[in-house]
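User: Show me an example of a complex going from sequences to structure tokens.

Assistant: Sure. Here are the input components:
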Amino acid sequence: MEKKYTILIVDDTEINRSLLADMLSSQYRILEASNGVEAIAMLERHHTDISLVLLDIVMPVIDGFEVLSAMNRSHWIESIPVITISAETSSTYIDRAYDLGATDYINRPFDEKTVQRRVKNTIMLYAKQKMLEDMVTEQILEKEKSNYLMVEILSNIVEFRNGESGLHVLHIRTITELLLRQLLQETDQYRLTPTQISLIVNASALHDIGKISIPEAILNKPGRLTAEEFEVMKGHSAIGAQILENSPSHREELVRIARDICRWHHERYDGRGYPDGLKGDEIPIAPQVVALADVYDALTSPRVYKSAFSHEKAMEMILGGECGAFSPLLLRCLTAVGPQLAEALSASSPDRLTRAEGQMLASQLLMGGQASNRTLALLEQERTKYRFFASMSKEIQFEYNLGTDILTLSEWGAQQLGLSELIAHPADSPELAAVFSRKDFDDLVERIRSATPASPVINVNYRLRIFGQDRWFKAVVRPLWVGEDHPSLTGCIGKFLDAHEEFEELATFRRLSMQDSLTKLRNHMSARKVIESALSHSDGRHYALLLFDLDHFKSANDRYGHLFGDEVLRDVAGKVLRSIRSDDVAARVGGDEFLIFMAYTIDQVEPLVRRIFTSLTGAYRDFPISLSMGVALAPEHGTDYETLFNRADQALYAAKKNGRNRYCLYDSSIRGYLSVLSPIDSDSDEAAGSPG
Amino acid sequence: MDLKACYAAMGADYEDVMRRLATEERVIKFLTRVPGDGSYDALRAALERKDYAEAFRAAHTIKGICLNLGLTTLLRSSSALADNLRQGAADEDTPALFQALERDYEAAMAAIRCLAGS
């Protein structure tokens, strides 16, 4: 069966879409989008399958021009042709569409033949180009693979004879690559492309190929070489170059670079190297880099004639000029990548073929801006996988693409939140703002912007408003970047987990921990906290601390039992709550002792205290309730909790001394009274304060 | 009423649409869907709430449909209104232009209904 090409028709008018579909559906598979947002979402999902877009320009929310811009930002425009269709014939419209990368322009009214012909021509043109691109990509991949294998085999032969482990070649590759990438950061004077870097890295493995011709007795001699032996040894660079020059593929760039590396990797920047005594940048950059890599690895690896030096020692020797002469620029690069070197070298393992392949694909993708279709197909597969798992997971997952400025929610997530699956321009979306407040949105954006690849995951809690109800969610968000050296943000992925029950439970625990279980008033500890905080932010306000206990409460317990006693306490607590304002603090301090803390305006304290005192006095069933109360004022009697509480306590003691059933305001004359809470005999017996 | 008579009644170009869309069957299929398209209602509502950007898009859509189907008379009035609203604002000509469009639209709808009924 012949493959049907897929066409995406984008038009906000249904009649227009179906008229086009009618003309094309016998020969093509048709996808329809009724606005720009849908169009971008479809492109995101199907762009590897779509062979052509027919695009209306005038549409609400996101118009055709914006769709074209999004296609530019995502580079889809490079592989998917767009024919714009409009009733507009003004040249500004047409020019702008062409400027944004549209391939062709059809005016209304269109006729069937024109539409069919233009569509066919455009698709054929692009299909051919795509096929060629695929073929070239495959060829390059194949070639790279076989190149790599050949290089690998050859260099292993050399190393085997050399009595070195296969690691040296891997190390040289790794160090060369690190240095070249750093070099690219420092300067563009060498015009290094990603392809060239990968060629130099491959070629670096061949640097010692000339050693094949060196007699083993010299090559593996443990002691010092004699002058004659050293001359023979030095021959290996010229011989290696000769071998490659004689190879039938000497015109290949890889072989040419390898030849340069072989011949000149023992030259010195100061011109005192061999075989040609080249000086400075007469030595091509590839051999310069490999020479440095070779020296570093030789120093840090054990050899028959020496043990391994540490990274630090090796750096010191190289930078100190003890082991050759290198360009200051390269030495800067070495210093910069120094910390990565040791780590990278311990990680290079002999199964690098697939990794190298992956890295090549990745570097194509990241540096070139254009990915091969094969790569795109792989990516598409990953995305399909991701979406499949997302749809099964029953989680509120989302994905945001900075290029298209579209937020995509998982189907289930969108349902849970009552939102559309696709939200264009989320920062300005009232729909989103109704669920996720602007303030929280800005907060999340800020967190995403300040995240770094070193610690990418953001964990934060937000309250969402879902169908009119607030619920707490835990958000886990990960920004996405491209580029290793200068990462640039491309979007983010993440999920929201409903943590409402968990939060509620925590809140309940917190409340319970502050509450007196019998009366549901605050307990002493939590009251103290609130009061301390009020006192330290008093801003000149006046406060009264009222401390009281029930007269003859013990007899209630004795006569009617503890359950009855508890009922009395609950009754009093209820009266306390009814007689204070919501800002006031009421707590059970312990036993039958209670505390009230309230703000008052000056001169009003007496009536206030009297009112509370009166409203609490009375009876529970047959049990008469009267109380003794001590009152201390802030700031007059103290400005910290400890002092204030002690003075209220002393006033309470005075009230008791004076015959109970009364309140007593602290004043300096009762300072001598000792606490009812810490009843130690007092030597002063004088009552003070006036009962009300 | 047959398609040719219907086109004559609307002041539309039968020859042109047949040349472009090839079969009467297809023209009828799409022509009878025009009354169901919401653009005219959208245009009226947008003008009432003075949303001229939306009104422009609606007039523009009507214009596009007329172009596709060769509805010459309605095309003329919808193009005029679309051009009038293009800058997203109305002027003293707008009400008259809309009235003209309204008249042509009703005439076209009447003819299409006759066609559908025949």
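The lines above are the inputs; the final block is the predicted structure for all two components together. The longest strand of chain A covers residues 469-482.
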